């Protein structure tokens, strides 16, 4: 369901219609889950963050501007929720334990359709190795096709910073891909 088809349901959900919210949830859940899964490694955290995204969305419907794309607004909520979650996790767990846990955990994909080919899997594993600040720019740029200006707005950073992170991410991906023996050019 595209943004135009969602608009009447969004308006009803804004007025507190729970069945309209349920329809919006069903239309967006797969996209929200995938986006969070690209940004967070721990499966339990993914589920918790997705739930928090929808709670935040329910509370923030009154801030949605119907003249702007809904999914852009929703992706902004996702990014802010992941950032909030990371800040809270930082406080809850000592840095050493968190890093050890993230490197020891095996990430499992529940949706195999996301990564169909071996090349995509290899590239995704390289993206996962990027720092969060670089990874979020890559995910928003290439998974959701946002312009760098939109990414900067969503992340609340200057456009130059978004461009710099994008450039650094691609440079790092090219370097890592070359180290694996790959010869594909990422542009």
UniProtKB/TrEMBL annotation:
* RNA polymerase sigma-70 region domain: residues covered: 25-92
* Record key words, sorted: Sigma factor, Transcription, Transcription regulation
Where does the record place the RNA polymerase sigma factor 70 region 4 type domain? 121-173
One Pfam family name is Sigma70_r4_2
Q: State the source organism's domain of life.
A: Bacteria
Family affiliation: Belongs to the sigma-70 factor family. ECF subfamily.
Output this protein's name: Sigma-70 family RNA polymerase sigma factor
